[in-house]
Design goal:
The protein is α/β, with parallel strands linked by helices. It is globular, with a radius of gyration of 15 Å. It has a single domain, classed as Rossmann fold (3-Layer(aba) Sandwich). α2 crosses α3 and α5 crosses α6. It has 7 helices and 5 strands.
């Protein structure tokens, strides 16, 4: 079983990938970390030196490399679902789950780590929630193609129930 977690940055994709990995006894991967390994640079450094277009190409390439793997959970980047045919590809190759916490909750998480997040590094704390609301609206048509969507206050049991029902 291949599980792809999608949603805004800070929505808990990496956290849930680790938890599901343990519960399902399958490996977890973080797409940004896999890109950093391949490129030898942080995501922030890739954005800064080569730009977003280059990053999105690298992201697409690393994502498609998962076609060679089976039985994993992958935390994707916040924008992964929105570029190229990534969302369609993930739906064809596994279960997609949209982690849809509210922009207010996500903003609270992200305030501490803005320096490591190129898309929000220059946004003031006061404007962060508004930015996330706007970003969510732009990305919603892609995220909404997910097999499952979980909103605020969901549990691991909720996710596992949906996954096992899907099998």
């Amino acid at each position: 079983m291949n599980i792809f977690l999608v949603g805004l940055m800070g929505s808990g994709k990496s956290f849930w990938a680790k938890k599901l990995s343990t519960s399902l006894n399958i490996p977890a991967f973080d797409l940004d970390i896999e890109i950093e390994k391949l490129e030898g640079k942080t995501v922030a450094a890739i954005f800064e030196t080569k730009g977003e277009d280059y990053f999105r190409l690298a992201e697409n390439k690393v994502l498609k490399n998962f076609s060679q793997k089976n039985n994993f959970v992958l935390a994707t980047g916040g924008g992964t679902a929105c570029f190229y045919d990534n969302m369609e590809w993930m739906n064809k190759n596994g279960i997609t789950i949209w982690m849809d916490d509210s922009p207010e909750v996500i903003a609270g998480r992200l305030k501490k780590e803005k320096a490591h997040r190129p898309l929000i590094a220059s946004i003031s704390d006061e404007h962060l929630t508004d930015f996330l609301v706007e970003m969510r609206e732009k990305r919603k048509p892609f995220y909404a193609q997910s097999t499952y969507r979980f909103t605020n206050n969901f549990t691991e049991k909720d996710i596992l129930t949906a996954i096992t029902a899907h099998e």
